[in-house]
Amino acid sequence: MTATATTTTQSKSSQKLLPADVRWCIDNKDDLSLVTYVDHFTLASRGYAVRRYKHIIKKYIPRDERRRLLSELKFFKNTVRYYQYWYDIMQRKLVIKAKYRSSILLDAAMKKQAKEVLTSFRGESSSNNSHNTTTEEDDSDAADVNLTTEDSLPDTSPVDDNHGASSTSSSPRALSHNSSDHSEDYEFDSDSCCLKHTKPSDGSSRGGHSEEGDRTILINRVVRTSAGFFI
Q: What residue spans carry the region label Disordered (predicted)?
């Protein structure tokens, strides 16, 4: 292998290790300028772009091309177009920054709102569950009260008095009215809360019970039931 071939190979190997912007400037040195360099790599800082561009030209571009490029750069920096160019870049930079910051603020606001909505939804759901539980408990208590009240009510069903006659009311008033013919035969015992028969039974009975005994049992049953209900 000749010396020229060795030098060419080393040059290509070293070029592969160069930064991307340096290789690009070397490959495009014929049409290279500050504008093409900045636009290609979308640089936003004027100071950094100018320093980097001059460094690449002085270190990596051959002497003849180097003089030309540095001369063109000096001329361009003394024109209105140079300042207008950077002014346009700064305006685009400000717009992009504003959009970026707005997107961050909007994202934060949406996350906050979503969190508040979720918290509110969980609170309402918990409140509804508590309300439903309370309602079920109230309904259960009301049902228990109704059952207790129904159990404490006196039995108003007709009772056969062995003569085919049925009692139509279990209240003391109805009892007094229905048994007015025999009221003089009974007295109220406050100790036992019962009506006791004052006249001896005539001994007539049906199936082991006398007529007056059956009537006494019926009256005592109604009185006790009525007393328990009104108490």
A: 120-213
